Amino acid sequence: MAKRHTFLAAATAALAAFAAPAYAHHPDHASGSKEMFEGEGVVHGDQHGGNEGHLPPVRYGVNLIGKAEVTNPTGAGNDGRVADVSAYGNYAFLTAFRDPTCERGGAHVIDMSAPRAPSEVQEAFMDTTPGNYAGEGSQTLRMKNRYFNGVLFIHNNETCPGAPQPTAPRTRGGINIWDVTDARAPKPLAMHAGDYTNPGGGGDDQANQTHSAFAWTNEFTGRTYVVLVDDEETTDLDIMDITNPRNPQLVNDSLDLDEPPFSVQQETPENLTSVFSHDMTVKKIGRRYVMNASYWDGGYVLLDVTDPQPGEVSLIAESDFPALDEQRLARGQEISPEGNAHQSEFSPDNRFLLGTDEDFNPYRVVATITSGPAQGATFNAASASATPPIDEETSITGRPTFVGTACEPLPAGSGVALIERGVCTFQQKLDTIEAAGYTGGIVFNAMREDCQGLITMLAEGDIPFVFTDRLAGLRLLQVAGVNETTACTTATPAPGTAAAMATIEAVFDGWGYLRLFGTDVPGRPGTTGSIEQIDTFAIPESQDARYSTRFGDLSVHEVAMDPDQSSRLAYVSYYAGGFRILRYGRNGLQEVGAFIDEGGNNFWGVEVHKMRGRQYVLASDRDYGLYIFRPRPRR
């Protein structure tokens, strides 16, 4: 097939390939993700893909004990319905994601007392407030203090795309805390607990959206805390005291690991610029509590949170990504890594850490300015939520036309429109340029503190429509001398200003994979340690362009470590790549078990869980429900 060369697609190429974000960045957290005004149209939590198809069935090194399908109470079916899994006793809890209709979000309850025949307790479904959904990082915690004695279940709240504005305060974002001591009759203890502050120092009537949460009890103080991923602020690790789970209190809203004294962003490769929290765990090591924060392009970061108060959290160690992607280099391709530190866990002896680099697009859109003062500069962009993507057969080259904010009707035009964010909704901008005859659009960020952040625009149309950061927009407008430091305060030239040429193309770079690190974490508070990479692992299909479509999402998602140190086993949810078992050590990573069901799987969460003295591994299938496994790894 002959390749198509259109600037419109190019512009859009920056925006996306295959309807998923086509860039090394994760657009839906912290940087730039908050709407400039109500209803502007920012989609959150778009990192989880929806590529149809599956791999052939496989089963070795593991026994399937039982599985249970959930029932969507809306009647809309289960495609993409299920997210994370957590468990306590004989019950598992599966969070209800925004797909397929973003109605009745919350959590399903599964009775596992008969592991070979688990079943949903439908009447125990935990509804969150309408307009919210639950996803990553759910957790159970046994708590016993003067405020509460029982089992907690905690889940996040993010806002449904296109949800109407809330009509009552404290009905969006944050976390929900449930009493699941009697799992068949859960009781809400706190709804939408979270960060109600804003950067101006005032208060909001809705909590910031939360992508993930993890709770722990400090045995030295008896206090229980939960850390939240704040979707809407650059200080994106919020720590709350939930010792009284009916009255959570925010104790630290100051942690931005991209700033001193942490400064985890690496200078090169240049594409690793989306530095924000995505997931985290906290573990007692010696006399300290260590937070393992997966910080996207900032890598895997170890923090001392023994005292979680502002000014008391310190850096223990942090990883850097290599100059070249190891999995691609092994196949003869020299390309920088995606970054995307998504989730990770320590080994039982704390000498190893296994991390998952999630990447939902096997093609990277490479956008380059090809004329003007910034000639040779590259940039990243993100596709709107419902506009045409480009693929490896479509590249782009040409000069866009700067049309300002595109909030009023425009004269007839052609090619690609360059647009500044602000004043009106993203949908209105798209409608305006389509009506004027443009065949693609690039929106660049406005003058704001987080102008270098990427977002996913809520917009539907028939032409490619992408979003990029402000520096890229100003460079396209040939503003001389602008850089990352000055971009957020540099004024925008007038509409009609001549723009530079640009070329945008898609390059296969594989799906996301795993990294194994060796770690040294001293048990004494305040001391530093180290984290050094040992190996990487990817399923073969994920690095083969023939599997880029029609086989489902072949990215890794989450990992759970076997608590038996002698086993050296890790259990991995690999979306359409199935359930995988890896053996780890100083010699690297080796697959010793795999499972893909007849008809395929779409595994999101994974958790090791013991019931009645027997250890199982639980996995949540996005389109079905719960799977219960017993590992039998090959030697």
TrEMBL record:
UniProt entry tagged with the keyword Metal-binding: no
Span of domain PA: 415-476
Residues making up the signal peptide according to the UniProt record: 1-24
InterPro entries the UniProt entry points to: Haem_d1_sf, LVIVD, PA_domain
Record's keyword terms, sorted: Signal
Keyword match Signal: yes
Full protein name: PA domain-containing protein
Organism (species): uncultured Solirubrobacteraceae bacterium
